[in-house]
Amino acid sequence: MKNQKKYKFLPFNFMRLNGSTLVTNMGGDFQILSNETFDKFINYNICPTDSIYLDLKAKQFIYNNSPNLPIQLLATQYRTKKSFLRNFTGLHMVVVTIRCNQKCKYCQVSSEDSDANEYDMTPETAKKCVDLIFNTPSPYIKIEFQGGEPLLNFGVVKYIIEYAEEQNHKYDKKLEFVICTNLSSTNEEQLEFCKIHNIYISTSLDGPAKIHNQNRIMENKCGSYKEVIKGLQKAQSVLGKDKISALMTTTRASLGKFPEIVDEYISLGFNSIFFRSLNPYGMARKYQEIISYTTEEFVSSYCQGLDYIIDLNLEGTLFIEEYARLLFKRILTPFATGFVDLQSPTGAGIGGAIYDYDGRVFVADEGRMLARKGDTQFLMGHVDDGYKTLFGGDVIRQTVASSCVECLPQCCDCAFQIWCGADPVRNYTTQGDLIGYRPTNEFCKKNMALIKYLLKKIHNAHDEVLDVIWSWITGTCINLNNLSETAENK
Questions:
Q1: Most buried pick, 114, 122, 318, 356, via CB within 10 A?
Q2: Which of 157, 146, 145, 149 is CA-nearest to residue 100?
Q3: What is the pTM (predicted TM-score) of this model?
Q4: Which domains, and CATH codes, for the chain?
C-alpha cells in the first residue's frame, strides 16, 4: 500500500557531501542531513513527531497545509537576498591614469611607464565622469580611484573629490572615496588632503619582504617592500590605521605561507586580510609559469590560513579573513553582500562600473583590460553617451542576462546556488563564452571547495568557534577572555 504523504515539498536543491546530504532552498536556508535521513525525507517518511520535521518545516523545505504562508516567507527571504539590486550601481571606479612606477608580475592592466605621456585623465573628462556618476539612483556612491598609480595624477584626483563633494550638496548621497595606491610615492600634501576629505586608502601588500618583492617590483627592478612600508607607516600616522586597508594577491611564492603573511599584517597594525587568488588577466598570463598554481593548491593554502586565523581569534587576537566573512554572512544570514563576484545577476555594471582615463566606460575592470588588447566586448560606451545609453544599453543587458545562476546550466541545480554568483567577464576571458562551462571553470571549482570547507567548519564547530564566526559577521566584539580560557582548557 502506498504511503500516505505526511507533507509536501517546497523547491530545494541538494548535494551529497562526505557521509551526509546538504539541502538548500531559494531563501538561503540549509540543513545538513544524514544520508539515511535524506532518503526518509524524499520518500515522505519523516514523521511529524521527529525533531527534524520541525526544522525542515520552519526552514520552508516542507509544508502540510496551505502553501501560501511558506511561499510568502520564501519570497521575503529571496527578496532580501536580492536587495542589492534595489539601488543599482553604487561603486564607481575611476582610472585617472594608467601610468605606474611599479612593474608587478601579475599586473592586470599592463600599465605604462611613470613618465609616459597621454595616459592621464583630463579635468574635462573627470567632470563628465562625476556628472554621469551622480545620475545613479543609488543613495550610496563610492568613488574608487584606480590606475596605474592614481597618485601620479593627483591633481585630477583632487578635482574629482572636490567637484563630487560640491555636486553632492544638490544630490545628498552618502559619498565615500577610496584611493587604491601602492603608497610608494605618497607625500605629506596628499595625505593631509586625504585627512581633510575623510578618504580611505587601499594598498597592496603580499606579505613579508621576501614574498612581496618577488612580484611587486619598482621600475628600477628593485623590490617595492621598503617603499611600501615607509608609505604605509606615514599614511597610518596621518590618517589613522582604520583608514588604511591592504590587499594581498596569492602567487606561487605565497603557497603554504599564509600564516607568515597573516603575522606580517598583524605586525603592521591591520585587523583583517583578504586571501585573494590570482586573476587570469594582463601580465599574470605572461608570467603564469612562474607565479600561477592550481586551484587545489590555493584552496589548501587558504584552509591552512583560515585555520590559523581562527586559532588566533581563540587565543585573543581579533583578526578577520574577509572572503570567509563574506561567505559566512551569505550562508548564515538572509542578507545580501555587496561583493560583485558573488552576485546573481552579476555585479558587473549594475553593482560597479569603471571609467577609463580616456572616458570609456566598462562593466568591469577586466573588461577594460580586454579592451587594451582590442577586444571591446564589455565596453558600454563613452561618458559623452549619457547615463541611459550606457546603463540601459545592449552590453550591460547581455552581461546581466548571462549571469543569473538560477537559470544557468548546472548552476540552476547546484545546492550552493543561493550563496554563489556568476562572472561572465571571467568566463569570457578564460573560456571564450559569457556563460562558461562549469566542469572546467576554475572560479566555480574554487568557490565550491571553499564553501564546502566553511560548511564543515560551521557543522562541526564548537561554540567558541561559532562565536568567532558570528563576531566576524556582525562586526561585534566577543569575550576574548572566555575564549582564551576555553582554548587553554582544551
A1: 356
A2: 149
A3: 0.93
A4: 8-81 (no CATH), 88-391 (3.20.20.70)
